[in-house]
Write a structure and sequence with these properties.
Length: about 400
């Protein structure tokens, strides 16, 4: 049976030419990149959830020689790690415990639901010519390393060694980091697709699946300043990635992603349900999503969608006001002249748009992901046969 490495040091020499690799001493350098042989693992070798950072940062790498093994993983970042995993609904915070303590207990538990490590098990460093030293952190590390030939080789080896033959119990892989304009997400998708094989498809902007596991990208626990708090806050623009992550996790662990909304009943549709006309909404979503760049993706709201009688799926879309330059959702009461700009309202908040469209019955500008169908639609419109609500996006109270 396939297993992940047991908690402790890992014996791996895939990227090293030496027959005998010395832990935390052997290195391989190419250009401005260097890896040091110090792969580690924590937690259960047959987990339900695999949690992966990108690589050991300087805080973790610097603690290897004089820190107990279970204290190394995510050292200095366990509070944010706990907040993120708790937000996803996969880490329980027992009464009297704080986030850091909950993470510490999970890392030490070799029979629990988690396996902890990093995507690149060895330490990755980049040479800083300005300071004339090797650094294990800094802007663009994730994107630029994977984009380099050396980084692609190392990442490919790591996936082959540790993520190809996962235990049957493993359903979810959580990757910390999204990269600039989701570049790390896109690179990781291609990596899994090419190395692990199988039929991979997108679930949303930051999650994908091969029907055996779901990979979801979340805010990096070591992000400084506002990114983590904003990712945790569904009312913020960055918070929509947190909502998408929760939805993907729910699908990975339960298989459904929809729920009713305040007084408005909609059938709970599993992500793979085939709807009217034999068109799978998820298949359409995945294929069209792959064609869009991050700017195009950001125009849409994925809180809900309208399914038309011909099987077309439409999502609320932000429109740019040529006068003000601002992008916002446009809602209208409908009726005569309702499709005219002057008879509608511009709504910047996604939550406010959802309230108008689903609770107050307003029409909203919506468009298919391929851009072929566009217009003003409402929940009880003649051409709308279903409304799909994304679980975690809207309260059902």
């Amino acid at each position: 049976m396939a297993n992940l490495p047991i908690s402790g040091r890992i014996d791996c020499n895939r990227c090293f030419l030496e027959e005998v690799v010395k832990f935390d001493i052997s290195t391989v350098t190419q250009g401005d990149w260097r890896i040091t042989a110090n792969p580690l693992a924590w937690g259960n070798a047959s987990p339900k959830v695999v949690v992966l950072g990108f690589s050991k940062g300087p805080t973790q790498a610097g603690a290897l020689l004089n820190t107990p093994h279970d204290e190394i993983a995510y050292k200095g970042g366990r509070t944010n790690l706990g907040k993120i995993l708790s937000h996803l609904g996969i880490l329980k915070i027992e009464s009297g415990n704080d986030y850091s303590s909950a993470v510490s207990a999970a890392i030490s538990d070799t029979t629990g639901p988690f396996h902890f490590a990093s995507m690149i098990r060895c330490t990755v460093e980049r040479f800083d010519h300005k300071d004339n030293e090797w650094k294990g952190s800094g802007g663009g590390m994730l994107d630029k390393f994977i984009a380099s030939d050396f980084g692609a080789m190392v990442a490919s080896n790591c996936v082959k060694q540790h993520l190809c033959a996962l235990p049957p119990s493993t359903r979810l892989v959580v990757l910390f980091g999204m990269g600039h304009k989701l570049n790390y997400v896109k690179s990781a998708f291609k990596l899994f697709e090419s190395v692990r094989g199988g039929n991979w498809r997108w679930l949303n902007e930051i999650a994908y699946t091969d029907e055996n596991i779901v990979v979801v990208h979340v805010e990096h626990f070591a992000s400084q300043g506002k990114p983590v708090p904003q990712w945790l806050d569904a009312t913020c623009e960055r918070g929509r990635y947190g909502v998408m992550a929760k939805e993907a996790v729910d699908f990975a662990l339960s298989g459904t992603t929809t729920q009713p909304v305040q007084g408005w009943t909609t059938k709970s549709i599993p992500l793979q349900t085939t709807i009217k006309g034999g068109v799978s909404t998820t298949t359409v979503f995945s294929k069209e999503l792959a064609k869009l760049d991050s700017t195009q993706l950001a125009r849409f709201s994925y809180a809900f969608s309208f399914v038309l009688n011909n099987g077309t799926v439409l999502y609320p879309v932000r429109m740019k006001n040529r006068t003000t330059g601002k992008s916002a959702f446009r809602v209208s009461r409908g009726g005569t002249g309702g499709n005219k700009k002057e008879n509608g309202m511009e709504v910047e908040s996604e939550d406010e748009m959802v309230n108008y469209a689903l609770n107050l019955g307003y029409s909203v500008r919506a468009m298919s992901l391929d851009g072929k169908t566009f217009g003003l639609y409402k929940r009880d419109g003649r051409s709308v046969v279903d409304v799909r609500i994304s679980k975690g996006c809207i309260s059902s109270n």
